[in-house]
Amino acid sequence: MSNGRGPDSETGLGEYEKIDPPTSFAEQATVTDESIYDEFNDTWPDCWERAAATIDWSEPYECVLPNDEPPFEWFAGGTLNASYNCLDRHIEAGAKNRVAIKWESHLGETRTYTYQDLYREVNEFAAALRAQGVEEDDVVTLYMPMIPELPIAMLACARIGAPHNVVFAGLSADALATRLESADSEYLVTCDGYYRRGNAIFLKSKAEDARLKTPHDLSEMVLVEHLGEAEHLGETQHTYDELVSEHAGAEVAPVDRSADDVLFLIHTSGTTGEPKRVEHVTGGYLAHVTWTSQAVLDLKPGDTYLCTANIGWISGHSYVVYGPLAVGATTVMYEGTPNYPEKDRIWSLIEQNAVDVFYTAPTAIRAFMKWGAEYPAQHDLSSLRLLGTVGEPINPRAWQWYYEHVGNEECPIVDTWWQTETGGMMIATLPGIDAMKPGVAGPPLPGTDAKIVDGSGEAVPPNDAGYLVLTRPWPGMPLALRHGRRWGREGTSEIEVNGWNYFTGDGARVDEDGYITVLGRIDDVINVSGYRLGTMEIESAIVDVEGVVEAAVVSVDNAETGGVHAYVTLEAALSGDEQMRERIASHVRERIGPIATLDAVVFTPDLPKTRSGKIMRRFLENIANGEEFGDTSTLRNPEIVGELKSIVRDD
Ligand code: PRX
């Protein structure tokens, strides 16, 4: 966990410094009227018309939400097409020459697609998919890196009503095979390969392996030649360029989808267990992400916007592709890593493209912080108007660094809490209205509601930690929840709460102002001398200690050195010594009680993380227990596992 707590650890009460949104920002914000909270509350669920009005419907809906119990048919009776909303309507409004996608490769090559260019290629590829036999409701799997053909393929699928199933290109052949099967998908669009940190990574061979591992055959495969490595294509394999040029100039009428029809499937990245399939529907999802792109990210037509998320994850679906394109903004796509070739790459992208809004993850911000403020200082970042973060708790120090060194204290920061399952943002401040508290996400967005409960389902008092549950359905809710399946994140299904609710699987705290601090996942419980302690609780005590950036704890079985081991990353300028070890251990004892004894504190420059930035405790457990560890290829930083092994050995 990274530090998601306020600076005051004595009382546990949130004595956060509040920061008002800069006046210059507030004056131009999309949402400026504080009464929006009351208004949404008083008129729920009809308040969500405001979100539905951000998109175009081909058939208007009859009712915002006909039932207050499942099935939740948001915008019942309405029909629409997501690709029409992201393309045609902007062209009809006269914006055909506005840039829709600005792409930059890791080598600095750029490609620019105006809305007209994007419209043309999406139509051509939609025609090509149809010609390959893809019909409405057939699932098309997209196993592709961050290249423009990925959003093009997504929008082409949306145009013909074929749900897409994007699989992150960094995942293995096995992971692809599982996802093809789970989605029952016979069509695959992939790529010969891509570059990462200067090395070519080949995808086609992984796709071929996956194909052999799935029981039902793929009927067609389309290959984008990104490296120029396509050769020996089989009969059912086609290159993207060949298909698009065969359908040059084709126009495909957008298929009318009902609000409840599936737009896409996606699998959660989960740090434990099997990936979970999540289906998002066309109407509610698109309304939710378009509305939050406007209300929270403050995106306006023509804004230039950079989100560093990979499109392989939900953040990329909602806030690289659908939200910004539905708004009519320019979305900047970057293929490479933030430190290649130099550690100022992101700042140079922002400067060169005069980016207005920047959205990234705390793990990236902590890396920027570690590299140093001199990198952003080398660039003119004055085009920035708003900054955002998502994916994990942000520690107040990282927040402050982002605010000062990237935003020059002139940009509000939105700390947005949401999940693959929620489709779009759920908890965040409205940047033109609400004061910010570093490290605290904010109140539930207008029209949504949340509660913090204990193990018996009762609400806990302000500032006490508990389980975060969402207590009102929302338009972006996934199909399974719409249909009333009890379907929460792992580890919480046994807790009963009165009324409709969705268990998020996160721990959180709410303060007197109704601001929620998200503490992290509660999946992990460890056993200490017969007591069950949440890793989250211990980790949040550790990251309270001045100088600590991140921490993960695991339990160790070994009788000699058994107990709780903590892996801790410190700020770059600090070195881990005995004094620091003692400070951490005594703080944990103080906060949780004498039972919470740390048996070892290991300092490490980094923690093993999934590609989406989640800490993988499993590898730490293997290291601590001296066990063999399996496949590290799902890690973003596999090298750290070996490094940690030698740190532990030398300690
Ligand atoms: O634990 C929360 C954390 O990320 C989880 C959702 O992960 P995923 O489905 O991969 O989606 C990531 C992008 C939305 C949550 O259950 N999380 C997300 N945003 C925040 C957060 N934790 C704290 N603060 C946030 N702003």
UniProtKB/TrEMBL annotation:
Span list, region Disordered: 1-24
One Gene Ontology BP term is: acetyl-CoA biosynthetic process from acetate
Do you know which Gene3D superfamilies this protein is assigned to?
A: 3.30.300.30, N-terminal domain of ligase-like
Keywords of this entry:
ATP-binding, Ligase, Nucleotide-binding, Plasmid
- Domain AMP-binding enzyme C-terminal: from-to ranges: 537-614
AMP-dependent synthetase/ligase domain sequence ranges:
94-473
Output the Pfam families linked to this UniProt entry: ACAS_N, AMP-binding, AMP-binding_C
Domain called Acetyl-coenzyme A synthetase N-terminal: residue spans: 35-86
Q: Identify the EC number(s).
A: 6.2.1.1
Looking at the UniProt entry, the stretches that span the membrane are none
One GO MF term on file is:
AMP binding
Q: What NCBIfam families does the entry give?
A: Ac_CoA_lig_AcsA, PRK00174.1
**Annotated family:** Belongs to the ATP-dependent AMP-binding enzyme family.
Q: This chain belongs to which protein, by name? A: Acetate--CoA ligase
In which organism is this protein found? Halogeometricum borinquense (strain ATCC 700274 / DSM 11551 / JCM 10706 / KCTC 4070 / PR3)
